[in-house]
Design brief:
Number of helices: 3
Strand content: 25-35%
Number of strands: 11
Shape: globular
Helix content: 10-25%
Order of helices and strands: HEHHEEEEEEEEEE
Distance between the termini: 81 Å
Largest sheet: 9 strands, mixed, barrel
Structural class: alpha+beta
Length: 253
């Protein structure tokens, strides 16, 4: 058969095969689309952690650590940390490593929240950390590797973003010495409770550390005239750790 004849034969075969392929595709079950919010809330702007507070005063400031439902092992570890601080030899902090949630949500720096139909981004100025909350109906991967930000999936209940975070690296809940394990799971409900107030209710469950789930609710205030600034920890660490292991503050002149 000549090259021209072979080419014509191939075209003829493709023309016969295409209808069959189309019929197969038409009969395949359609993938059910993920449920999405009919109308996304407007959370534009910069939300400041300056002056923000916990709704429950027993979980604010130093009482935040004191009221943690720690099991005996981690309660002792926390007391050892406090003793080291009192002795002037505190344990070292994390330096320029990412904070990760829930600690990043307590950092005294602003953040932005960008909501789209498939995912929502919580963008922190501090160390430029980004939490991605997938709302497209996906499942958590089975072979998930622990990361600083974890893996967050959720959905919308009206104007409330409801999401869970798993796969977090073991570390500290905040700079006050509270630790969490790799079993920590977060359940959060984020909503705008007023024109200038964003609220985040987070329930922390860690069977290796806590005796029961621990819920804390925080609020963030809207600052319309603020912008997220660049924070380059490796170039200009505004919170360096000195030789004694204490965290200080250095501002670039």
């Amino acid at each position: 058969m000549s090259p021209r004849a072979r080419t014509l034969a191939l075209f003829a075969f493709a023309a016969l095969a295409l209808p069959a392929l189309g019929a197969t595709a038409a009969t395949a079950p359609a993938k059910k689309p993920a449920a999405k919010a009919s109308r996304l809330p407007d959370w534009k702007g910069v939300w400041g952690n300056y002056g923000s507070r916990n709704i429950d005063p027993t979980t604010d400031s130093g009482a935040f650590q004191a009221n943690a439902p720690l099991n005996p092992e981690y309660a002792k570890r926390y007391q050892d940390y406090l003793a080291a601080v009192k002795a002037g030899k505190p344990k070292g902090d994390i330096g320029c490593l990412p904070e990760g949630p829930p600690r990043i949500m307590r950092a005294p720096y602003p953040m932005e929240v960008v909501a789209t139909p498939d995912e929502t981004w919580i963008i922190a100025e501090f160390k430029h950390e980004v939490r991605r909350v997938y709302t497209d109906g996906r499942k958590v991967p089975e072979d998930l590797d622990p990361t600083y930000e974890g893996y967050s999936t959720g959905h919308w209940e009206g104007d409330t973003l409801v999401f869970d975070t798993v796969g977090l690296k073991a570390g500290t809940i905040d700079s006050g010495g509270l630790e969490h394990s790799d079993a920590l799971k977060l359940h959060e409900r984020m909503r705008r409770v007023s024109a200038d107030t964003l609220e985040d209710q987070v329930t922390m469950t860690d069977p290796k550390v806590f005796t029961k789930p621990w819920t804390v609710t925080r609020q963030y205030k809207l600052h319309k005239d603020w912008e997220i600034k660049e924070f380059t920890c490796e170039e200009n660490d505004r919170n360096p750790i000195n030789a004694s292991g204490q965290t200080g503050v250095t501002l670039k002149k």
